[in-house]
């Protein structure tokens, strides 16, 4: 049904989406194992393409060398933050001593962060190939080219932001922006996939009006994005409690308002997903993609709720942290694709 060049684009685009979720999974493992500072520099790790496995491989006084490098980078970043109208934040970046704190060498953490970077590089190449192959649509569907090329630029910004995450010693709000940008990149890739597949296979979309369903899907998706922001805020509070030496068993009790809002939004999101599921099942036959994705969304929200409850009841175990982060992004991706599938076929 699709010409060869289009098939190649669709295949590459599909692989790109899978690799992007792997990057998010790797990022989640880095966060839950506290390996974010495993490599004190960027893009190389301890100034090497392949990082060391033992502290004896590092030169004497290496700590100060990396602290100086990060300090210089932060001065440049503070200027950018100031330029965008946030002088207080710029001041904090310039003067907060904790930003330059050094973490002692730990081979496991270094290699966890290093593998995370390798998966990131693979995602960069996958996006680049997608952009190159998208040129087959230059005449028939130029928006696919536009979005695919834009995504390469967004991933470059994301990589730069990744370097800032390191140089500011994992400053909380930057991690939130990093997470939202990751969802944006996934979203653009899903969108180009949707445009490419529906450009020839019209049977994917429904001929009837799906108006209110589409609005409900948009509402559910918006709620998920807000929920992710509150989730990262809860996570930042946990990181802060950890830094202050609070016992793991006492974390959840001290989480405060963002955690309360996070739970309220979670149950709202669950309710909306269930409502959407029944409405989609009512409108579309069970063999359609819409029905399939309504199922996927309901399963993912179920796993997400369960991993959230495990986090809350069992003192935030690391495996549940990673699951919670990865499933949140899969949930976002499935909801977004379902929302796109709610588009009425244009005749
Ligand atoms: C639709 C449902 C939900 C979504 C989309 C969601 C999403 C998220 C996200 C994106 C994070 C940040 C993870 C990170 O930055 O590493 C997070 C953290 C968290 N969420 Fe949820 N969440 C949901 C439901 C719940 C529920 C029901 C609970 C508890 C009853 C919960 C408890 C937590 C806790 C304790 C954290 C901090 C975990 C950590 O330190 O890694 N979440 N959530």
Automatic annotation (TrEMBL):
It comes from the Bacteria. GO terms for molecular function: metal ion binding; oxidoreductase activity. The chain crosses the membrane at residues 12-30, 114-137, 144-161, 173-194, 215-232, 260-280, 292-312, 318-338. The keyword RNA-binding does not apply. Keywords: Cell membrane, Disulfide bond, Heme biosynthesis, Iron, Membrane, Metal-binding, Oxidoreductase, Transmembrane, Transmembrane helix. GO terms for cellular component: membrane. It holds the Pfam family COX15-CtaA. This is Cytochrome oxidase assembly.
